[in-house]
Protein 1
Amino acid sequence: MKTRMKHVLSFILIAFCCAVSVTCANNKNRQNKNTGSLVVSPSQDNTSEAKKLAEGLRRKGITDKRVLAAIGNIPRHKFIDESIREYAYLDRPLPIDKGQTISQPYTVAFQTELLQLKPGEKVLEIGTGSGYQAAVLCEMEAEVYSIERFQDLHLKAKETLNKLGYHPNLFFGDGYEGLPEHAPFDKILITAAPEKIPEKLKQQLKVGGWMVVPVGGRMGQKMTVIKRVSKDKFHESEHGDFIFVPMQEGTEK
Ligand code: SAH
């Protein structure tokens, strides 16, 4: 099947079922952000479409100005295949390689808002995918670590992010293991759905830190926030229904 056809078909398939909100719907990482010399400046590159997307998310209930500013600055079309470029600024999940998806922008914004990220905080993302969510975290001036279990996606995301001037710490590996050598993290964000809260990741949170994770099976998940209130005590809260691709064990090419 031709690539365009394949992507359009998967778009139709996933439009209704992946990384979707059911309810609604560091600077360290980005070099030369202000000089503009090496970075593709979004102002020459679809800023108005990205800004309109952010404005739409504000109308749908996203209030965190830093999250909206980040989304308004990122050229989302750079994270997807050219053949589906026309859908890049719609509030829809879209297919990427390996049967995975770039989440719906509302879902990205909703999860990021729940993180309440402060500049300089150390955040671990599980599921780099296209790299779009990692770009949002970089725009918010966090110290970003992200793990992807597909090597091809990991390499492609690295290339995309670096071309745009974002330099998060990207790892190819199984997110269930986390990154013990870089722990503890202020925040952990999981962008695929585990059936149960991954125990090893809970242990990699700072006391006072929290994890945002869609928990549940293939039919749907509850967006869950797990706060580490002391060494052994965690507090859980739920924030609506979503559908994500499953979080799977192990790695693949
Ligand atoms: N954050 C991504 C969305 C990706 S979809 C973006 O902005 O584009 C979820 C991703 O999680 C997929 O790429 C999938 O391969 C990855 N994933 C699933 N299980 C994983 C695991 N155990 N470790 C790391 N990545 C995983």
Protein 2
Amino acid sequence: MEVYGKTPQDARIARIAEERNIDRDTLRWLLATEDEDALFCLRKTARETADRAYGKRVFLRGLIEFTNYCRNDCYYCGIRRSSPCERYRLKEEQILSCCGAGYELGFRTFVLQGGEDAYFTDERLCGLVSAVKERWPDCALTLSVGERSRESYQALFDAGADRYLLRHETADAAHYGLLHPAEQSLAERKACLLHLKEIGYQVGCGFMVGSPGQTVDTLYADLQFIRQFNPHMVGIGPFIPQKDTPFGGEPAGTAEATIRLLSVIRLLLPKVLLPATTALGTIHPKGRQRGIRAGANVVMPNLSPMAVREKYRLYDNKAYTDAEAAECRDMLREEMREIGYEAVCARGDYRKEPETEEMI
Ligand code: SAH
């Protein structure tokens, strides 16, 4: 039966786009189906939605992994405090020189990511943020350093930080409890996200695909949380086991499920900044390209010094650990060009209004 010239499956996908919502059964169907025509329609609808919001542009963010010390003990993460990994912490001069090199390569967004490292008190981190913003006032600065107090988030914002990535990891409290020790809670995560948004950051939440214990129901909760929270950015990537963690023997998430969910998220939040993550590029050789073709519009090449890359091991077999920053950028540019997209270094802020040329 055809509805308005569409198959019932296509109509079901069109409804997600129109309502900017998805019901549990449709999610269940989209995660399980092998109907290639329906999946093609899902990706196409999502990609067209992204094109309408941001055009054929993919934003590059320079990622600097500046410390792998962490006070948390998340069961999935290779830099958890119980992990035997070798620790490092970049000095402020090293971080600034990564930014400088990134700036020369054209990057206009720097993402400073790290474990929850007590060395980085508000004073030290604010000092770092203002040093970056003083030298490169035309750049956006994104922080991804986990849970801090509201006062701390405010101080960092006042020091010049523009954006903050804090994945909620799962919106189901019981599932959150399965992924983290009892001292961490979903309520606290959500409170942090709310504070970040109230303060005025562009905020990113997100989750791993295929984490142990994840079900259609927990994913449904994730999507409803994302819809309600309405973040500026969403980071999702496959769970990849790291052998020294409690989940070292668990199966990895799949590129396929990640790509389907990227498309669904694009339909729920047409303007969201949505990376095709390193984890997706790790699990599948064409992962990042496939992510972009399914509606993602950000990639985050690594600007960290070569000497520490191997140590920032959230999961095993991380992609591109041996490519220099410039090489990394050029490879990504080429990957994007191959599929008809242009990798751009512009700040690429979240857009509330339809774009105009001078905003680019
Ligand atoms: N400490 C910071 C950022 C570092 S971890 C924070 O808490 O936000 C960044 C993200 O990597 C995490 O949010 C998690 O979703 C993801 N991650 C951690 N371990 C992973 C693994 N084994 N496989 C895939 N992604 C992982």
